[in-house]
User: What shape does this take?
Amino acid sequence: MTITVNDYYQTGWREELHSCPACEWKGNSRQMEMELHDEQTEYACPECEYPLLVVQHPDLTQVQAAAAAGNEEAQQQLAILAMAPRG
Assistant: This one.
């Protein structure tokens, strides 16, 4: 079963252990194959490529809310956005 993470800033999703229903591999997102898309990142089993995890990318409002709540990663993302040229 593929799990969807709708809140990118949810604590622990990167370290959560997953079991592949197809080949019984076990591991976390850092060990999976990652495929980046515009609105989401998909993570698949490194053994059989079964899709295990889909993480929705945050929009600007979600980044700002997480930064205001003290999330360091969101604060860093806002700093990067502030340095981007506008035009």
Observations:
- The mean pLDDT is 95.
